[in-house]
Amino acid sequence: MLAKKLVTAQKRGETRALCLGLGMVTCSMMMYFFIGITIVPFYTKSVWTIETVCKVLKASIKEKVLCPDVEGSEEEDAFPYPCLQVWVNLTASGQEVMLYHSEDTVERNPKCSYVPDKLENSKEVKARIEKIASNFKKYQIFPCYYDPGGTQTNVILSRLYPTKGLLFLFLWPTLMFTGGCLIIVLVKISQYFSALSAWQ
Fold it and tell me: Where are the domains of the chain?
């Protein structure tokens, strides 16, 4: 009777462990799918792939513009902000080009180097942009990214999804997938040895 209870408890534990392993594998596959359809396209679409060194030539704040300044944008989403323009010398080619904060900045407003988030306090936005401009004047040499194909003549300060960041995103589902497969393998090995000992 006791042996029968132990066997039943063992089978229940194996079933739960197997469900846990399958659940981990399923979740990891869903995470792979989510990353693949949301983040990977933005990474592959970006043409600013080569890192180089940029030197600031000019950083000036122009008159206020509306954000976003792109076609198809809704008027209620637009808000005025000072337009910061930063021109740099691209070390790789020696050209004078405009610097943008990221790929998103080029799409939102190609006239300005930095597009702030929508804030109700215009003074806070102005102070932030003035601080960014002073930082560019203070730290004039810094790494930036350019398009080696030449389709984009401008450069960006940072990529939305760099290679290291993308690999870090894939690390967690990979660990979960590996852990789930390991649990399933261990359960199957346990079941095999249990059946072997019962047969003997």
Answer: 50-163
